[in-house]
Amino acid sequence: MSGLQRTALALTIIGAINWGLIGFFQFDLVAAIFGGQEAALSRIVYGLIGLSGLYCLTLLFKPSEEVEREPRTDMT
Fold first, then answer.
1. Domain that holds residue 51
2. How far is it, in rounded angstroms, from Cα 24 to Cα 55?
3. What are all long-range contacts of 15-19, with beta carbons under 8 Å and residues at least 24 apart?
4. Contact 45/30 with Cβ under 8 angstroms?
5. Confidence at 75, pLDDT banded by 50, 70, 90
6. Is residue 51 included in any domain, yes or no?
7. Would residue 74 count as lying in a domain?
8. Domains of the chain: total
9. Predicted confidence (pLDDT) per residue in 25-56, tens digit
10. How confident is the model at residue 67, as a pLDDT?
11. What is the pLDDT, as a whole number, of residue 64?
C-alpha cells in the first residue's frame, strides 16, 4: 500500500469516526477542533476527507496481491 493510499484511508477513517460522533452524539469533532463548520480550515478538512473517500473507491476494486501472483512452475 502506497503512502497516498494510507493517507487517504486514514482520512476516510477520520471522516467515518466524525460521522459516527455526529450520528450518535450530535457532536462534530472536525468543527470543534477547527473552529466551526463554516471555518475555512474545517471546510478544507471536509473536502480532503471527501476526496479521500473517492480515492478509496479505487482500493475497493483493486485486485488483491494474492490473486496477482503467478503459480510456481518449477516443481523442485
1. 3-60
2. 26
3. 15/49, 15/50, 15/52, 15/53, 18/49
4. yes
5. low
6. yes
7. no
8. 1
9. 999 999 999 999 999 999 999 999 999 999 99
10. 46
11. 75
Beta carbons within 8 Å of 48's beta carbon, 6+ residues apart: 11
Is 65 part of a structural domain of the chain? no
User: Residue 55 domain-assigned?
Assistant: yes
Q: What is the pTM of this model?
A: 0.77
Query: How many helices (H) does the chain have, and how many strands (E)?
Result: 4, 0
What lies within 8 Å, CB to CB, of 1 at 6+ separation is 9
How would residue 63 be classed by pLDDT, with cut points 50, 70 and 90?
confident
C-alpha cell at 53: 473517500
Q: Which string of b and e fits 30-44 if b means at least 16 CB within 10 Å?
A: bbeebeeeeeeebee
- Among candidates 24, 13, 72, which has minimal Cα distance to 48? 13
